[in-house]
């Protein structure tokens, strides 16, 4: 009996040692989505698995609540803490509600970063933005230039509401960087209020009142769709192009009709990839993730951590006829 | 006498619209060209159809604020149906749209008729409910152009005698509503139960039932608009036609339909819609700052209401009032 007990204890100890040994070898990273079953996050997971394979010795646990609630994410975080993960990378449903749970995780030495949708500063080391306002503004100008012969000519912006913060920031960035694109001329900015009918009418108005405008840039998905429809209804496909920011699943029709040659949005695969890379390097101790530091992120190059521990991944990803079918299935 | 006044009013609207077209075309050449006018009419078609439905409801002293939410729900439902079963013939889809719209309208009508809740409260409630239902149905997702079938998207765009089918649909609906309002029992009952409910009861008209049918009619037309909207803009999402219920009310008010009920004409609703349509289509092309666009639209509507209020003062007064009958009405209203 005593022997049996010793044996049991011994094997349990051995097992525990084995387990801790294994843990020291594989780095476990919890990738928390806003909700499961969303194509965007499934794609991010794809990128995360790619990074894990590339780095080696990394296990990515992809998880999340079934609906986009902060409560669900808190449960998921607690479960990850119980699983002794080394890092948590989360796209938060609420920037503040998940902070206490994440603080608990950090108190146990778990490295926490947020990506896509930020967590308040106290609850994470680094936040990875898919892009930055500066890069988005630059991308919009690049897209406009790409649709014009030699990158020279007139374009107009179709925005959402006159008070929309991110739209106005992006438009301001575009205006600021316009001198870097000689020959590119911003004629006017119109506002479609993110309503399909008003955006459509504004685009139609541009077609009639601004015959020189050859490209309409709409950094909003309702606007870019409505403008594409207006251009194809006006039978101006091939003379006037629409581009901007939109989701591949929404823009697939516009690409097929030819109203849009290419448009941009952040790539969720790259985002998941970079988040995993950053989490890995934080766990390894290669970097502390303090503002001003650089973190190398494999094929995405070096990612610079800016103020408030926020980082911008890269230029928005460009989608065109070649890759639209692949991505329109994802998100 | 009153009839002549209305003739005058509608003529006045025609003149105002003509003047507007003149002013706009002086600032933007080609604005009054036939092709652009047909564009404007086509663009306004959905508003015309919705405004006619709204008109029948307003004529009975009620209001239907849920029309835009009805458009959103029905549009989402038929778009998802089309995406899931591309084989369904378009005629069936349009019938389903009409049916869903009619059911949503009937829900409003039943609350107003059987429970006697004021229509503004009922439809304010169903406005959020129908939009919420559209969200539940779609899970917040979008139905995009490439998921819809060619006939679904292209039929309203087919040109027939220079005007797209969408525009012709509006013309057919205008004709039908004109006949219903002027030649059928329901049409006359709608005027009577809004104009003088007491007298309507004496004439053997069930005011509540008439309101119910006005709501069903409005809902049915909104259902049709649900399909037309989704097809025109080639996208269905929860927020489509947001705020459009107010446009339909504004079109009625500008068209001289009294918000107190009983007064108004099909021509008025059509002209009121066209008036809004001309302004909406003109603002983007005449280089007016977007910041002042809304102020201009609002100013025009208020001017129309003031004009309306002045007209309503000329109405005849009820000389005799029977307490018994008016109490029945109070119970219903």
UniProtKB/TrEMBL annotation, chain A:
Instruction: Please give the GO cellular component terms listed in this UniProt entry.
Output: outer membrane-bounded periplasmic space
InterPro entries in the record, alphabetically?
A: Bact_Solute-Bind_Prot2, Peripla_BP_I, RhaS, SBP_2_dom
Give the UniProt subcellular location, in the record's own words. Periplasm
Q: Which domain of life is it from?
A: Bacteria
Entry keyword annotation includes Signal:
yes
Q: Which UniProt keywords apply?
A: Signal
Report the leader peptide range.
Answer: 1-24
Which GO BP terms apply? rhamnose transmembrane transport
Q: Does the keyword Transmembrane apply?
A: no
> Its principal location?
periplasm
| UniProt-listed CDD domains | PBP1_ABC_rhamnose (cd20000)
Single Gene Ontology MF annotation: carbohydrate binding
SUPFAM superfamilies named among the record's database cross-references? Periplasmic binding protein-like I
What are the Periplasmic binding protein domain coordinates in residue numbering? Answer: 29-286
Spell out the family assignment given in the record's similarity comment: Belongs to the bacterial solute-binding protein 2 family.
What is this protein's record name? Rhamnose ABC transporter substrate-binding protein
Its lineage opens with: Bacteria, Pseudomonadati, Pseudomonadota, Alphaproteobacteria, Hyphomicrobiales
């Amino acid at each position: 009996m005593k022997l049996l007990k010793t044996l049991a204890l011994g094997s349990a100890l051995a097992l525990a040692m084995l387990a801790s040994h294994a843990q020291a070898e594989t780095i476990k990273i919890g990738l928390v989505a806003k909700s499961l079953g969303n194509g965007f996050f499934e794609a991010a997971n794809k990128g995360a698995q790619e990074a894990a394979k590339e780095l080696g010795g990394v296990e990515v646990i992809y998880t999340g609540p079934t609906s986009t609630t902060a409560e669900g994410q808190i449960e998921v975080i607690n479960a990850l803490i119980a699983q002794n993960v080394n890092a948590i990378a989360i796209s938060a449903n609420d920037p503040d509600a998940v902070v206490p749970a994440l603080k608990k995780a950090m108190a146990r030495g778990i490295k926490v970063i947020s990506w896509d949708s930020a967590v308040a500063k106290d609850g994470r080391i680094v936040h990875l933005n898919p892009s930055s306002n500066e890069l988005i503004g630059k991308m919009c100008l690049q897209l406009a230039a790409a649709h014009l012969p030699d990158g020279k000519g007139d374009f107009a912006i179709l925005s959402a509401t006159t008070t929309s913060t991110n739209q106005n920031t992006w438009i301001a960035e575009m205006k600021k960087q316009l001198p870097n694109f000689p020959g590119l001329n911003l004629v006017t900015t119109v506002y479609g209020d993110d309503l399909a009918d008003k955006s459509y009418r504004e685009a139609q108005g541009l077609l009639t009142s601004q015959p020189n405008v050859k490209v309409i840039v709409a950094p909003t998905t309702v606007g870019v769709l409505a403008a594409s429809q207006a251009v194809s209804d006006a039978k101006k496909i091939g003379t006037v192009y629409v581009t901007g920011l939109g989701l591949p699943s929404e823009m697939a029709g516009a690409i097929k009709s030819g109203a849009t040659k290419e448009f941009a949005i952040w790539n969720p695969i790259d985002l998941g990839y970079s988040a995993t890379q950053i989490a890995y390097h934080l766990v390894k101790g290669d970097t502390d993730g303090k503002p001003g530091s650089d973190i190398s992120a494999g094929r995405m190059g070096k990612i610079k951590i800016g103020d408030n521990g926020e980082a911008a991944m890269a230029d928005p990803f460009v989608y065109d006829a070649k890759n639209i079918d692949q991505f329109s299935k994802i998100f | 006498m009153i009839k002549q006044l209305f003739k005058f009013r509608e003529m006045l609207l025609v003149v105002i619209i003509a003047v507007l077209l003149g002013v706009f075309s002086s600032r933007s050449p080609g604005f009054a060209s036939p092709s652009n006018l047909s564009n404007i009419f086509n663009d306004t078609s959905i508003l015309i159809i919705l405004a006619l439905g709204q008109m029948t409801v307003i004529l009975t002293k009620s209001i239907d604020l849920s029309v835009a939410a009805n458009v959103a729900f029905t549009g989402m439902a038929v778009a998802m149906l089309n995406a899931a079963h591309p084989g369904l013939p378009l005629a069936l889809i349009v019938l389903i749209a009409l049916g869903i719209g009619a059911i949503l309208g009937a829900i409003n009508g039943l609350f107003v008729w059987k429970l006697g809740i004021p229509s503004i409260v009922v439809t304010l409630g169903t406005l959020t409910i129908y939009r919420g239902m559209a969200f539940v149905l779609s899970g917040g997702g979008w139905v995009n152009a490439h998921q819809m079938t060619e006939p679904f998207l292209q039929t309203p765009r087919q040109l027939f005698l220079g005007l797209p089918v969408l525009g012709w649909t509006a013309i057919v609906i205008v004709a039908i509503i004109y006949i219903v309002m002027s030649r059928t029992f329901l049409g006359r009952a709608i005027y009577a139960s809004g104009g003088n409910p007491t007298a309507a009861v004496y004439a053997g008209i069930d005011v509540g039932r008439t309101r119910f049918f006005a709501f069903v009619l409005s809902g049915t037309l909104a259902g049709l608009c649900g399909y037309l909207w989704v097809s025109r803009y080639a996208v269905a999402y929860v927020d489509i036609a947001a705020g459009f219920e107010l446009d339909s009310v504004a079109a009625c008010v500008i068209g001289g339909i009294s918000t107190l009920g009983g007064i108004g004409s099909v021509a008025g609703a059509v002209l009121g819609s066209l008036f809004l349509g001309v302004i909406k289509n003109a603002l983007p092309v005449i280089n007016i700052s977007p910041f002042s666009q809304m102020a201009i639209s609002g100013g025009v509507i208020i001017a129309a209401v003031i004009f309306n209020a002045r007209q309503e003062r000329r109405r005849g007064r009820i000389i005799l009032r029977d307490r018994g009958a008016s109490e029945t009405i109070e119970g219903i209203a």
